[in-house]
Amino acid sequence: MMEPAEKAVEEAGEYRSNRERKTVFSFEINGVGSMNIKTLKEDDTSIHLLIKGTNAAFMNTLRRIILTEVPTMAIDEVVVIENSSVLRDEFVAHRIGLMPLKTDLDTYNLPEACNCGSEFGCNLCRVSLALESESGDHTITVYSGDFKSDNPSVVPVSNRIPITKLAPEQKVKLEAYARLGKGKDHARWQPVAVCTYRYLPIIKINEKSCDLCEKCIKVCPRKVLRKTGDEIVIHNIEDCSLCQDCVDACEKTPNAIEVTWDDESYTFNLESTEALKPRRILQEALKILDEKLNNLLDQLKGIQE
Amino acid sequence: MIIPVRCFSCGKLVGDKWEDFTRRVKEGEDAGQVLDDFGVTRYCCRRMLLSHVEIIDEIIQFHETGKKRQLHSSS
User: Fold this and answer.
1) Cβ contact, residue pair B57, A95, below 8 Å
2) CATH number corresponding to B15-74
3) A100 alpha-carbon distance from chain centroid
4) How far away is chain A from the Cα of B30, in angstroms, using its nearest Cα?
5) Architecture of domain A72-189
6) Nearest CA in chain B to A194
7) pTM value > 0.95
8) Are A109 and A210 in contact (CB under 8 A)?
9) What is the DSSP letter of A243?
10) Where are the domains of chain B?
């Protein structure tokens, strides 16, 4: 009889041997089988994936790591030198903190992981951005594009975010320090606006009992079903929200339409704040998960010895 | 007061779209259509722009008139 800890180590060891065959977009976990990923839609800000051969636990792990652990750059500290605008210092500082910044993960370190060990940070864990704006005789708007960054690659993702407005003869002068951070510390470091997964629906239509009344087509809020010739066809299954309205609308007993879901297939939807590319966010999340699992494996080995 | 930088619910950047949004709506375009053009698809982000009132413009008027009065009395 094997001790539980021993068994866990053995299983984890198997995981590690499987890990060697792993690439970012296809890998195996014990008991889950091989994963199959299809990109449904991808652009600069969002990615929509169909992932087969996994389970809800893994999808939720991925989602939570993306939300809380993937680092991005954001302004953490603002030194206000002068602010005579109608907005208070803390109001302005809060707005500045929320601006998403283009993030360079390969150059910068997390402050807690940086070798400098300094409270104030060094060139590898901190970027300073300066803002100085003065209105002349007219009211002006201060934009995110007015910031002058130490590193031209770490700048706000948009130049058109209004920071404050200045009436004639008002002035704002401040210095802001950006650093890498994690979503679990504050939402401004979250790399995504949306990160969700959903079961892939299964819609079954019994052709024998269906009398083509089309009630299910009319009632569907997502327009998933269509009539082609003398049958009801599923047009875009990823849009189905599993609301079961079509099942309720069917007047046959038993119902001619049945909506269930496949708990091994998921659609994954991610929309980035433009700080990082969506694909990069996924890759970073998997790297972090890998580190966490290796850490667990090492600790389990410690228990065994 | 002033347009929020991000959507309160999901965190999408909405602040940078405000000026174009009001300009186009004032020119007579349909607000929903403009939001679709900007790719603001979720209702949490849409309400940020649709329901916003830029009160800072009202407050700034006090500072502008104060300045004018000052110029007037000194001349």
Assistant:
1) no
2) 1.10.10.60
3) 14
4) 22
5) Beta Complex (2.170)
6) B10
7) no
8) no
9) -
10) 15-74
- pLDDT for A1 equals 45
- Cβ count within 10 A of residue A280: 15
In CATH terms, A3-69+192-289 corresponds, of 3.40.630.30, 3.40.50.300, 3.40.50.720, 3.30.1360.10, to 3.30.1360.10
Chain A residues contacting B, CB < 8 Å? 45, 86-87, 91, 95, 98-100, 139, 144, 157-162, 164-165, 167-170, 187, 190, 192-194, 271, 273-274
A166: amino acid identity, one letter: L
Which among B12, B15, B67 has the least Cβ separation from residue A193?
B12
pLDDT digits (tens, 9 = 90+) for B36-65: 999 999 999 999 999 999 999 999 999 888
Nearest-CA distance B56 → chain A (Å): 8
Averaged pLDDT for residues A177-181: 95
List chain A domain ranges: 3-69+192-289, 72-189
Its ipTM equals: 0.90
Q: How far apart are CA A224 and CA A127, in angstroms?
A: 48
Distance CA(A103)–CA(A108), nearest Å, equals 9
